Sequence to fold (460 residues):
Amino acid sequence: MNNSQEMDQRRARRLNSRQDQRGPVIYWMSRDQRYQNNWALLFACQKSRQLQQPLEVLFTLAPSFLGAPLRHYDFMFKGLAEVEASLRNAGIPMTVIFGNPGETVAALVEKRQTGAVISDFSPLTPVRQWKQHAAAAIPCAFYEVDAHNIVPCWLASPKQEYAARTIRPRLSALRKSFLTPFPQLTPPCQPDNLPCPPVNWDELLNMLDVDRSLKPVTHIIPGEASAEQRLRRFLNHEIDRYADKRNDPNAEAVSGLSPYLHFGQISAQHAALQASRSLASQTNRDAFIEELFIRRELAENYCFYNEKYDAFDSLPEWAKATLMEHAADQRDYRYSPEEFEQAKTHDPLWNAAQRSLVETGVMHGYMRMYWAKKILEWSTSPAAAFDIAIMLNDRYSLDGRDPNGYAGVAWSIGGLHDRPWSERPVYGKIRYMNASGCARKFDVNRYIASVTAQPPPMLF
Fold:
């Protein structure tokens, strides 16, 4: 166990050129919504002790975040309620403010006469713009800590990587330095009179102006405790099947951690470290860590260095060229966005995948590749297909609006991080998938029947 209260300072970077001041420390929690195993919170505690100033955690609620509906806010708020209770028990208050974060954070910093601001890392454009605005406006130092990745995204590579094979050596070289245990979180000494009232999360949820037609999921329990429970179940019962069976949606061989990772309710570094220590075979451990570490951080790299990550124009030039050469090809089926959304295609397998997404907020990873490729095949144009896949994934999936989702759509539809394959109609040189290929990998009828069955299977 690493008993040091210090962290590798390369995990943090400055977002402005100002210095620490004499005043309270604010940790602007955003993407990493957890109390344990959180480098940004650890750094904030370190800074609070260094400045001998109290620590406050801030959470901002923008008027809307990329169209997220009630389903996502409900999952997030239930997790945040758990974080806030842990913080309160440690004497650290959490404040929630509404409005444009770039403006509201700067206003709160001025009001509190803050000494330093710490934020967690996100490669997504809206969040980066908020931080740029706040960093320019506040009079104290503004730090960003990558608490989401094992290797800090800006350190892993200075450019957009071509494929897993190009980023893997970079990440592997840094793995020993960064895939380490977390130090024990020691809260800073807080003033006895520091107000620490509880947050009324139900009231905040009712105040949000969001789409309430998409109801919360009930079969996945949000929060740090449930995320840890899910990780333990995977490591104790399922990881032994991961290498051979992860592409079989009937096999229950995947971790189920994606929603928790997206909302930062569990640390990818913690999960990878626990997997590396498990009793599973080396093959299964390596296969899981490859997805959790290399593939996941490749997606982060894509969004960090490609500002068009959620648009067709982000795709590699060879992929755009081959898709446009085949844009006018005859398509046996064409569906509107509404028909896709309502699972009204001719393909029972695709419809089952879409119903799973709509009804449960999750879709098996292998099915999500098939799902996206068929949207390409049955849309009026490649660009339309890209937009439809992003729209559906962001609206319905609990892990939507995430680098993994954007990179996944770009890989499936546009050859991102892939290579040219044999040319065929509609797809051009993009990798092809079909239902018969799925049938060779798993029992398709069983999968369709499992989606049709009600209620959805419990994860716990």
About this structure: The domain at 1-148 is CATH 3.40.50.620 (Rossmann fold). The chain has a mean pLDDT of 94. The longest helix spans residues 282-305. The chain has three domains: 1-148, 150-183+222-307, 312-452.
